[in-house]
């Protein structure tokens, strides 16, 4: 799921190359709508995802803790199934404002995934295995980008055009939602197919008991910790640089360098390794 999350996040940048009225050499996509949006409008559309994403970060963790990750993850995937499929249609009739609204909704839904994952780790992974399993899951971000961007460029330059990108990832999100509903559970105790030995091992390793007391969160000490503040600043800087590159490079490569979309999708996937 983390692979799919990062794929959804980055592939819209390649899609916008085709939605805008750009001269893409050697490709004929005139049968699909192209929008003569200004750079300012394009930047608003690209950034609108993060309006919803930023606003939902802290509430998402509380929602996952209170209602469980199964319903949360399935809901997120369903939203990201419906919105991409209808986005080309609502953009055609409603203009760029409709595109912004769709992206804000996607941002709100995708903001729940990473906080939800940490709730999931707390319920399912023993401490001695958590570091390794967390690294594997977060490795899905790079995998999603490496495979997703070339696939996106291929779809965009095919007869499906840029609307096909949204439909493809919408259907993929719906498929993932079905798998999560069938095979995911909020905790080992709620999983119907887990073996008794595995459930016992996880619960004993985590100390999960019916009478476990919930301790208050020391928010004041957390927010006042110099180490915590350093991590926040470093994460902001890293994410700012990374997302600026992924947001602006497709347009730069097309407009300034004159590189066609097939080359752009490969170059963008290589950025993951830098």
Which CATH class applies here?
Mainly Alpha
Low-pLDDT segments:
21-30
Share in helix: over 70%
Instruction: Work out the count of structural domains.
Output: 1
What pattern of helices and strands is seen along the backbone? HHHHHHHHHH
GO molecular function, one term: transmembrane transporter activity
GO cellular component, one term: membrane
Subcellular location: Membrane
Keywords: Membrane, Transmembrane, Transmembrane helix
What would you say this structure looks like, in words?
The chain has helices at residues 2-19, 39-67, 69-110, 113-124, 127-156, 161-183, 196-206, 219-223, 226-255, 261-271. The chain is mainly α. The chain has one domain (2-208, 224-271): Growth Hormone, Chain: A, CATH 1.20.1250.20. Helix 2 (39-67) packs antiparallel against helix 3 (69-110). The two termini are 23 Å apart. Keywords: Membrane, Transmembrane, Transmembrane helix. It is found in: Membrane. One of its GO terms (biological process) is monoatomic anion transport. It is a multi-pass membrane protein. One of its GO terms (molecular function) is transmembrane transporter activity.
């Amino acid at each position: 799921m983390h692979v799919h999350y990062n794929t959804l996040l980055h592939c819209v940048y390649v899609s916008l190359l085709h939605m805008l009225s750009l001269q893409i050499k050697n490709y004929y996509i005139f049968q699909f709508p192209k929008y003569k949006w200004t750079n300012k409008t394009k930047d608003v559309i690209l950034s609108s995802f993060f309006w919803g994403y930023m606003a939902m970060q802290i509430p998402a963790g509380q929602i996952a803790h209170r209602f469980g990750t199964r319903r949360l993850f399935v809901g997120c995937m369903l939203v990201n199934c419906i919105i991409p499929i209808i986005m080309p249609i609502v953009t055609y009739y409603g203009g760029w404002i409709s595109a912004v609204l769709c992206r804000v909704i996607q941002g709100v839904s995708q903001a729940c995934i990473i906080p939800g994952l940490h709730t999931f780790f707390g319920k399912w992974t023993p401490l001695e295995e958590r570091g390794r399993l967390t690294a594997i899951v977060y490795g899905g971000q790079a995998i999603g980008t490496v495979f997703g961007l070339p696939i996106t460029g291929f779809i965009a330059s095919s007869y499906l055009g840029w609307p096909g990108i949204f439909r493809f990832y919408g259907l993929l999100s719906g498929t993932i939602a079905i798998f999560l509903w069938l095979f995911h559970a909020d905790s080992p105790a709620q999983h119907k197919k887990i073996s008794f030995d595995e459930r016992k091992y996880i619960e004993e390793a985590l100390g999960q008991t019916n009478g476990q007391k919930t301790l208050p969160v020391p928010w004041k000490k957390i927010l006042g910790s110099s180490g915590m503040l350093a991590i926040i600043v470093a994460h902001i800087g890293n994410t700012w640089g990374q997302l600026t590159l992924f947001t602006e490079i497709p347009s730069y490569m097309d407009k300034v360098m004159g590189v066609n979309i097939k080359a752009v999708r490969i170059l963008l996937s290589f950025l993951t390794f830098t």
